[in-house]
Amino acid sequence: SIAIAEKAGDVIRDIMSKGDLNVVDKGKKDFDPQTEADRQCQQLIVGSLLTQYKNLTIIGEEGVTNLKDVPLNLILDEINEEFLKNHKCPENLKDITDDQLVIWVDPLDGK
After folding, report:
1. What is the mean pLDDT of residues 70-82?
2. How many Cβ atoms are within 10 Å of 55's Cβ, its own excluded?
3. What is the DSSP secondary-structure string of the chain?
4. What is the chain's Cα-based Rg?
5. Cα 25 to Cα 37: distance, rounded to the nearest angstrom
6. In this prediction, what percent of the chain has a pLDDT beyond 70?
7. What's the pTM?
């Protein structure tokens, strides 16, 4: 959703402005940094999508996100009606249900 992407940008800017990224190493072999922005953005994206579409399968780069662990201020349930009016779903995809979809989430990728 557009609102989720915009809110994730707000989260990133807020964390960056504080100057403490709270970096942890999630690597098993090589250094693989994960920041507070990574963690919060994944919670926001996954939590918001699962709130709207309960049967989605979501695979997050930062590990499993359990909906009950996502703070309420990171969950959005807005749908951009204007976007939906102006962008129609292709006919061959109209009957797909959320349990038929898999979404991969990589909240920040600085590569």
Report:
1. 91
2. 10
3. -HHHHHHHHHHHHHHHHHT----EE--SSS--EE-HHHHHHHHHHHHHHHHH-TT-EEEETT----GGGS-GGG------HHHHHHSPPPGGGTT--GGG-EEEE------
4. 16
5. 14
6. 97
7. 0.85
